[in-house]
Amino acid sequence: MKTYKIASIPADGIGPEVIAAGLQALEALARRDGGFQFDVTEFDWSSDRYKKTGALMPEDGPEQLKAYDAIFFGAVGAPDVPDHVTLWGLRLPICQGFDQYANVRPTKILPGIQSPLAGVGPGDLDWVIVRENSEGEYSGHGGRAHKGLPEEVGTEVAIFTRVGVTRIMRYAFRLAQSRPRKLLTVVTKSNAQRHGMVMWDEIAAEVSKEFPDVTWDKMLVDAMTVRMVKNPQGLDTIVATNLHADILSDLAGALAGSLGVAPTGNIDPERRFPSMFEPIHGSAFDITGKGIANPVATFWTAAQMLDHLGEPAAAERLMRAVEKVCADGVLTPDVGGSATTQQVTDAVIDAIRGEN
Ligand code: NAI
Ligand code: MG
Question: In this protein, which residues make up the domain named Isopropylmalate dehydrogenase-like (predicted)?
Answer without folding.
Answer: 5-348
